[in-house]
Automatic annotation (TrEMBL):
Pfam families: Peptidase_M1 (PF01433). Binds 1 zinc ion per subunit. This is M1 family peptidase. The keyword Membrane applies. The active site is at E370, Y454.
């Protein structure tokens, strides 16, 4: 495709042990093969110690590659997966280097098995686990949505452990009607596989040493379910050559054998790694601020595919100008079996098939909302089950910036009245208005959840901007992005940021729109 594919940096292999380890332990992926060949090389001169982040750099634009050096120790996943679309199976193995970045010693690790969530409908069986090369014991917990792996000795803060896992995944097959909403599985000649691998749970420090906890909440269809620390991924994915993958990261190598294509992808800091694929995708690309944006589309929807590309390019530029530049070399937009809804993943947004056809009028707003999640979810992350408002309200508000910049103030004002004010007034007329800052399950139904968290949440952001002024508001967002880059934010931390604004009226706005102020 282009020269970026040649950039896998070989000397890296000589001391990135998990990769070598994977190639010996779990069969030779393409990445492993390349690295094994290097295993025979001579030793490395200590004075020219290779760059530990070299493998991941192609995922980021050159001016953001420094993020890899600055963001501190993070899980590193080296995954090898084979997708068998007709058998509805995925066979996977991973070597995961896990640093303990908490304040507590860890006596066990928790991996989330997201395909086991009821609304994902998959079935994941872990077949083996090694801890630093030795067989490890593990049990399924939390209604089989998590795996607990006991550590031979406590992992102290600052220490790392290497876990190797093998698993099999049964992929659910759903109806081929365009009205289905399925985040995971096969439908309409597409397979969506977010979180097809065991994903290290988020560990949150408690008020005192030793009181932290692994995150074990199970999200539902109403909101998002995945909560992850920013991690690095190197993924070897094998699938039939006629299937086109849509993923996170950037492709750095590809080879083909007997009708199967093996791709290698790497990411920069990333909340998860998406695999989505179809044998009938076509694609078109454009450039935006040094990022290649690719829009995939199904047969007969080329015009909508082109429109989606245009919207995504516009959104990427507008949000880069207002929040801070989009840091990755790739961004993708693709249809998925999620009717007229959208879903965000790192470096990819998926849009319901019906937004390319009968709900074409929703396509632009959906792209504008989902693209904003590349900042509010992927760069700054939050618990999507307990505090969904943190990313959703801001992603929704971001649409206003998109509208102002593309169509002008009058159209943006129409968005505010029609999309936010009208539904909120309807809710108030039914006496169902409630606080924005609540967990997903606290809302009566999907309609109340969406109107309050999205529309009312966006109106709050709009009120803050009006109160503090556009320039100060944008500086606030830019500082927020810089300070919490690749981190996880809570409502309390977010409030501390809000308090930095020199206008106490914003706290009144918070109480008026979002919820009670917690005691300081
Ligand atoms: Zn959203």
């Amino acid at each position: 495709m282009d020269d970026r594919r040649k950039v896998v940096t070989f000397p890296f292999a000589l001391y990135f042990s998990p990769v070598l380890y994977l190639s010996c332990w779990a069969g030779v992926g393409l990445l492993g093969l390349m690295l094994l060949l290097l295993g025979g090389c001579t030793s490395v001169d200590a004075s020219t110690r290779p760059d530990p982040n070299a493998l991941y750099r192609p995922a980021l634009k050159s001016e953001f590659q420094n993020d890899l050096d600055l963001f501190g120790p993070a899980p590193r996943y080296t995954i090898s997966a084979t997708l068998l679309p007709d058998e509805l199976k995925l066979i996977g193995s991973a070597v995961i280097e896990i640093p303990n970045t908490s304040r507590d010693p860890w006596t066990y690790l928790i991996f989330r098995l997201y395909p086991m969530l009821r609304h994902y409908g998959g079935s994941m069986v872990v077949q083996g686990a090694l801890l630093d090369g030795k067989p490890a014991t593990y049990v399924y917990v939390n209604e089989n949505t998590a795996l607990r792996l006991d550590l031979a000795k406590p992992l102290m803060p600052g220490q790392s452990v290497t876990v190797a896992l093998t698993w099999r995944l049964e992929i659910p097959r759903w109806s081929d009607q365009s009205a289905v909403y399925v985040l995971f599985g096969r439908s309409q000649q597409m397979i969506s596989l977010p979180l097809f691998y065991p994903s290290l749970a988020v560990y949150t420090n408690g008020p005192t040493i030793g009181s932290g906890q692994w995150w074990l909440l199970n999200g539902t269809e109403r909101g998002d379910a995945a909560f992850n620390v920013a991690s690095l991924f190197a993924v070897t994915l094998t699938l039939p050559s006629d299937w086109t993958p849509v993923t996170s990261g950037v492709e750095v190598a590809r080879d083909e054998l007997d009708g199967q294509t093996r791709y290698v992808f790497v990411t920069g800091p990333s909340r998860e790694f998406l695999v989505h694929a179809s044998p009938v995708f076509s694609a078109i690309s454009a450039e935006a601020y040094g990022t290649r944006v690719t829009s995939y589309y199904l047969p007969g929807t080329e015009a909508a595919g082109q429109a989606a590309l245009r919207y995504a390019v516009q959104a990427l530029r507008i949000y880069s100008d207002h929040f801070g530049e989009y840091p990755f070399t790739e961004m993708r937009v693709a249809p998925a079996p999620i009717n007229f809804r959208g879903m965000e993943y790192p470096q990819s947004i998926l849009l319901g098939v019906e937004t390319y056809t009968r709900h074409r009028d929703k396509l632009e707003m959906l792209v504008a909302h989902e693209m904003a999640h590349q900042w509010w979810y992927q760069i700054v992350h939050n618990d999507p089950v307990s505090e969904p408002w943190l990313d959703e309200a801001l992603a929704e508000f971001s649409m206003r910036l998109y509208m102002e910049n593309v169509y002008g103030d009058a159209q943006a004002q129409r968005l505010v009245s029609q999309r936010w004010i009208a539904p909120l007034e309807g809710l108030r007329a039914r006496q169902q208005d409630t606080a924005v800052a609540q967990p997903v399950q606290a809302f009566l139904n999907g309609s109340q959840y969406e109107t309050v968290v999205y529309a009312k949440g966006a109106l709050f952001w709009d009120a803050v901007r009006r109160t503090v002024g556009v320039r100060r508001f944008e500086r606030f967002l830019q500082n927020y992005l810089r300070k919490y880059r690749w981190k996880i934010i809570t409502t309390e931390e977010w409030l501390d940021e809000l308090r930095q604004l020199p206008d106490p009226a914003v706290l009144t706005l918070f109480e008026e729109w979002i919820g009670e102020l917690p005691p300081k």
